[in-house]
Amino acid sequence: MTIGMKTVENSGKRARSKAANRRAILDAGRRVFARIGFEATTVRDIIRETDLAAGTFYNYFKSKEEVFEAIAEDSTHRFRGMLKDVRATARTAHDYMHDAYHAYFSFIADENRQALSEGAPHMALIGVRVDTPEMLAVAAEIRSDLERILSADTSSTIDIEFLTAAAIGTAREMGEIMLLRRPVDVDGATEFASRMLMAGVKELAAK
């Protein structure tokens, strides 16, 4: 019984160690990408930012591209939780647009707070890779949300595919500009994006 308990305990420690190592690599990658940019970053740069050996790095990732993709996946996964909360509370198209944009702009501001405070010129925005499974899932959820909530608000037919692309594209482009401004104005970006999208929706619904 004691041997069995020790085996389980050791297995748990190994799992925690693996998770900690992976997290250390992702955190280091985010810092390096923010500091010198993706193109200039090498695997060696990321390893030097951790206390891990090179061999340990390659137990988790094969390249800087995999690290970058994992950062985007990790961030997008966490943002999906925020989008779920918006979905649960928004009752109108306006509420959804406003709250979803606010959640996104707040999230990327928080994600890049350290990089911004250190004057890092390259922010590791979430959603840079639009073809990752997590990002595709987010896009599908947003499309479903818009289709559901607009069907209750309007009687006209709006191209949901175009609207989803416009909503996501606006968030990505405006988010990048917002992070470059001082101060970072989450509320201002939210109001501009949500009002612009809703103005477009109202015009399309009136046709």
TrEMBL record:
It comes from the Bacteria. Residues 42-61 bind DNA. InterPro entries: DNA-bd_HTH_TetR-type_CS, Homeodomain-like_sf, HTH-type_Tx_Regulator, HTH_TetR. Keywords: DNA-binding. Pfam families: TetR_N. Residues 19-79 form the HTH tetR-type domain. Gene3D superfamilies: Tetracycline Repressor, domain 2 (1.10.357.10). GO terms for molecular function: DNA binding. PANTHER family: ACREF/ENVCD OPERON REPRESSOR-RELATED (PTHR43479), ACREF_ENVCD OPERON REPRESSOR-RELATED (PTHR43479:SF11). This is TetR family transcriptional regulator.
